[in-house]
Specification:
Strand order of the largest sheet: 6-7-8-3-9-10
Helix content: 10-25%
Order of helices and strands: EEEHEEEHHHEHEHEEHHEEEEEEEEEE
Number of domains: 2
CATH superfamily of the largest domain: P-loop containing nucleotide triphosphate hydrolases
Mean pLDDT: 94
Low-confidence stretches: none
Strand content: 25-35%
Largest sheet: 6 strands, mixed
Radius of gyration: 24 Å
Number of helices: 8
Shape: elongated
CATH architecture of the largest domain: 3-Layer(aba) Sandwich
Distance between the termini: 32 Å
CATH class of the largest domain: Alpha Beta
CATH topology of the largest domain: Rossmann fold
Bound molecules: adenosine-5'-triphosphate, magnesium ion
């Protein structure tokens, strides 16, 4: 039995189909991240699970039970939004306990629940303050606390960290992970930040244009992206995509004489003359002249701190390499970028699907 099951959910606004048949089954305790660019339907799907929007067709099940038509407050789900809308004139204590107060939970029991949540979130010392006396990160913790005290079956988060600055976002990300490891509640979390997705998720659903393009663990998504879209969405700098043509059981990089081997996990051997896309991650490239190499000409080198990101030309195509920071390079220098055969991902140029 799945903790949360989404069955063939479709949503149409007017004559536009926003969700085109979404199927996901989550085990209890999973942390699912819905990852995709703006407008792909992430919030729509989350709102349908919460009961804040109605699906055009399909089913949402918690445990054995369909929750379509069940009022949001009776769904055993708590949601945390990007704008955490706290009540400005209530203390942190009352903000966290507000839902319980509305449901007439006795004061002593409410106080215990609020203090438990505050302890988990490390905001016990702030309980008597008003929201205006809190930092952004502290306010976000209060909003999470409000969801926590309900002890829901499922937590939904819609971009909860996007209002925070980069450093705070990273801290809160770690907090959320710690919290999930402790509570083991099932989570569905929406973001367009691939790092958040990679670090938090037990599984990621990469969404595009109302569909799930790939559903898998973070390492499946990173190591074996199913499509060009997924390959370039996850990873920074993004995966290099080189236009290649099949030639005598190998790949020739278009516009050059450079030959790459075929990956050895191909289902069907491609035909001579076939146009493909070879993907290689920037971090899979090294500056060594032995083994498999691609000759390239350095165009720009950018030091980010932990690495030197080099943009270079392979014929007329651009390639990026993430190299150790102390690599000495000149503009225009000839480079020999080496890589392992396993680092090559092969995609069909037309359909964008992985070739293995
Ligand atoms: N009430 C509505 N009426 C008509 N169209 C809508 C409505 N709500 C959402 N849409 C459309 O549905 C699509 C998906 O919207 P949704 O809010 O789910 O995207 P999202 O993936 O959450 O994007 P973002 O990352 O920008 O929040 C968008 O094209 C949006 O314009
Ligand atoms: Mg959204």
């Amino acid at each position: 039995m799945s903790a949360l099951e989404i069955v063939n959910i479709r949503k149409t606004y007017g004559d536009v189909e926003t969700l085109k048949g979404i199927d996901i089954a989550l085990e209890s305790g999973e942390f699912l991240v819905l990852l995709g660019s703006s407008g792909c339907g992430k919030s729509t799907l989350l709102n349908i699970i919460a009961g804040l929007a109605e699906a055009t067709s399909g089913d949402v099940r918690i445990g054995e039970r369909s929750i379509i038509g069940v009022h949001p407050k009776d769904r055993d789900i708590a949601m945390v939004f990007q704008s955490y809308a706290l009540y400005p004139n209530l203390t942190v204590h009352r903000n966290i306990g507000f839902g319980l107060e509305m449901r007439k939970v006795p004061a002593a029991e409410r106080d215990r629940a609020v203090r438990d949540a505050a302890r988990l979130l490390q905001i016990e010392s702030l309980l008597e303050r008003k929201p205006s006396q809190l930092s952004g990160g502290q306010r976000q913790r209060v909003a999470i606390g409000r969801a926590l005290v309900r002890k829901p079956e499922v937590f939904l988060f819609d971009e909860p960290l996007s209002n925070l600055d980069a450093k705070l976002r990273m801290e809160m990300r770690t907090e959320l992970k710690r919290l999930h490891q402790m509570l083991k509640t099932t989570v569905v979390y929406v973001t367009h930040d691939q790092i958040e997705a990679m670090t938090l998720a037990t599984r990621i659903a990469v969404m595009r244009d109302g569909r799930i393009e790939q559903l898998g663990t973070p390492s499946e998504i990173y190591d074996r992206p199913a499509t060009l879209y997924v390959a370039t969405f996850v990873g920074a700098p993004p995966m290099n995509l080189l236009k290649v043509t099949v030639h005598s059981n190998a790949l020739r990089i278009d516009g050059t004489e450079t030959i790459l081997p075929l990956p050895d996990d191909l289902g069907m051997p491609p035909k001579d003359g076939q146009k493909l896309i070879a993907g290689i991650r920037p971090e899979a490239l090294r500056l060594v002249s032995s083994g498999l190499t691609i000759p390239a000409k350095c165009e720009v080198a950018e030091l980010t701190g932990p690495e030197l990101v080099v943009t270079a030309f392979v014929g007329t195509q651009r390639i990026m390499a993430a190299l150790p920071p102390r690599t000495a390079l000149q503009n225009g220098q000839q480079l020999s970028l080496s890589f392992d055969r396993e680092a090559i991902h092969l995609f069909d140029a037309e359909s964008g699907w992985r070739c293995s």
